[in-house]
Amino acid sequence: MFRFEHPYMLYLLLIVPLLWLGQLFWHRRRNKKLGASIDENIQQRIMPLASKAKIWLKLSVYSLALIAFIIGIANPQLGSKTEEVKRKGVDLMIALDISNSMNAEDLSPNRLERAKRSLQELLTYLKSDRAGIVVFAGEAFVQLPITTDYSAAKLFLSNIQPDLIATQGTDIGNAIALCLKSFDFDSPTSKSIIVISDGENHEEASISMAEEAASKGVVVHSIGMGSAEGAPIPIYARGQRLGFKQNQEGNTVVTKLNEEMLAELASVTGGIFIRATNAESGMSYIFDEVERMEKVEIGTKIYTDYEDRFQYLLLPALILLIIELIIPNTKTRWWEKLFAS
C-alpha cells in the first residue's frame, strides 16, 4: 500500500509552473526592451557569450530538483506488512430527523443543530464500535454506511441540512426499516438503533417497525429533541429570518415534542428514551447503554507498518541542484564540446 505521510505538501508543486511562467514573462519582456533599443546583430556582438539555451536548461534542471525535493518532503511511504487486529464492538445505526420541524428553536441554536452536536459527542465516545447514519423526513436514505471511520462520520454529519430531503414529514418507521437493512445479520455483533427526532410522526408504521427490530434482537433508543410547549418553525432566506411557517388558515404552526411516541418506540425493544435539553443532550446515557451491550470481536486487516522512501528523492534533488549550479550561464569552450547552445 502506498501513501504520502504529508500529502498537503504536494500543493507546493504548483510553484514549478509558476517559475516557468515567471521566467517566460521575464525573458519576453527583456527581449522586447533590448529589441526596441539595440539591433539583434549588435546584441550578438555586445554579448557574444550569452546563451539562451542554457537559461532554459538550468531552469529545467532546477525544476526537476524542486519536484524531487517537494515529493521527498511529502514523504512517500510503502506499507511493509499487514496485521489483523481484533477489536470488540457493537453495530450502531443512527436515524436522524431532518424534517422542517427540527428547525424549531426551543433548543439552542435549533433542534437539528443540537442533535448534530449530540452525535459529535457520541462519535467522540465511541472506540471500536461501527456506526452509520440514516437521515429522514418524509423519506429516508443512508447518509453514511456503517463504518469505524469516525472522522468520515463527523465530516458527513457536518454536511447534513434539512434541504437534503425534499419530501417533508417524519416517517420514523421508514428510517428504522432502512437502519435494519444496513445491518449485517450474519455477523454476531450486537446491534442498536438510535432515533433522534422531535417525534412528530405522521406515519403509523413506526411502532410496528420497532417491534420488528425487537424480533431481530435490535435495541432501539430514542432521544427527543424539543419541548412539550413547542415552538414555531422559522423561515430563513440568506441567513435572515423572514417569519414563521403558517398553515392554510394563516395561523403560525407550533411543533411540539411527542414524548409518548418516542418513549413507546424505545420501550418496545427494551431501549431507553431521553429528552434532550440545552444543558444535557442525553447522549452519555445512550453511550452507557451501548457499553453494557455484549461486545463481539471484529477482525479487520489494516496496514500497520510503513517504510519511508523520502531518501530516494532528496538525494537526487541535491545532485540536480549541484548540476544546476555548475552549468554556466554563458557559452564556454569546454561546454560547447558537450552541448550545443
* Rough outline: elongated
Number of helices: 11
Instruction: Give me the Rg, rounded.
Output: 32 Å
Main sheet makeup:
6 strands, mixed
CATH topology of the largest domain: Rossmann fold
Mean of pLDDT: 85
> Reading side by side through the largest sheet, how are the strands ordered?
5-4-3-6-7-12
Give the topology.
Blueprint (H helix, E strand, L loop, with lengths): L1 E3 L10 H23 L2 H7 L5 H22 L2 E14 L1 E7 L13 H15 L4 E7 L3 E8 L2 H9 L13 H11 L8 E7 L8 H10 L3 E6 L6 E2 L1 E4 L2 E5 L9 E2 L3 H9 L5 E3 L7 H10 L3 E13 L2 H16 L6 H6 L3
Parallel strand pairs: 3-4, 3-6, 6-7, 7-12
Antiparallel strand pairs: 1-2, 2-13, 4-5, 8-11, 9-10
Helix pairs in contact: 3-10, 4-5, 6-7, 7-8
List keywords for this structure.
alpha/beta, 2 domains, 11 helices, 13 strands, 24% strand, elongated
Structure description:
With 341 residues, the protein is of the alpha/beta class. It folds into two domains: 2-75 and 309-338, no CATH class; 85-300, von Willebrand factor, type A domain (Rossmann fold), CATH 3.40.50. Helices cover 40% and strands 24% of the residues. The chain has eleven helices and 13 strands. The strands form four sheets. Strands 5-4-3-6-7-12 form a six-stranded mixed sheet, sandwiched between helices. Strand 9 (234-237) and strand 10 (240-244) form a beta hairpin. Helix 3 (52-73) runs antiparallel to helix 10 (311-326) and helix 7 runs parallel beside helix 8. The longest helix is centred in the first third of the chain and has 23 residues, at 15-37. The radius of gyration is 32 Å and the shape is elongated. It starts with a strand and ends with a helix. The mean pLDDT is 85.
